[in-house]
Every structure is written in C-alpha cells, then in structure tokens.
Amino acid sequence: MSNVHTLKDIDDKGAVGSLLDKQIPSGQRLGSIRKLELEKALRGSIKTASDIANDYKNLQDVCLKQKKDLVLVQANANKKISQQNATNTRLRSSERLSHTERKIRYKFGSTPK
C-alpha cells in the first residue's frame, strides 16, 4: 500500500514529499494509511451488515405476506371441499331415496307418475 500515490503527490514529490518525511516518520505514515484503510473497511462492513439487516427485514415481510396469502388459499380450499362434501352427501341421500322409492314401486307394482 505504500506504493499508492495520487498525481498531486507525484507532481509535488520534491516539495511535499520531503516535507512529509520531516514531519511524519515513515512508520507513522504507514500506520495512518492503514488506520484509514481499516476505518474504510469498518464503514463498509457496517454498511454491509445494515444492508443485510434491511434485506432480512424485507424478506420477513415478504414471507409474512405469503404466509397470510397461503392461509387464505387454504381456507378457501377447505370451504370448497366442505361444500363439495355437503353436495355429495345430499346427492347420495337423494340417490338412496330414489332407489328405495323404486324398490317400493316395484314391490307393489305401482308405476311412476
């Protein structure tokens, strides 16, 4: 990382570089650069963690909505199944009644009106 320079640093190397060398020892410059890099990385990871938390919240909202939708679909399906079962029960009852009526008519020789 010590080889990273801006164009201004390169242009002013003679004037600024020598001033920096006198004011800040080389080890401290590297430490300062490293500190800035670490701070930048920390800010990036905090932003990433925040983004992950936001994405997680959004996914929870989506899952909750889908769960509610699924409950409604299941309730509608159960209602239709119950209606079909009731219809089937009525039809079977009607069929049994018709069958019984035919037996009685056949047994007593009456014809349907």
UniProtKB/TrEMBL annotation:
Superkingdom of origin: Eukaryota
Biased composition range(s): Basic and acidic residues: 92-103
Q: Where is this region: Disordered?
A: 82-113
Return the Polar residues bias intervals.
82-91
Its recorded name reads: Uncharacterized protein
Taxonomic path: Eukaryota, Fungi, Fungi incertae sedis, Mucoromycota, Glomeromycotina
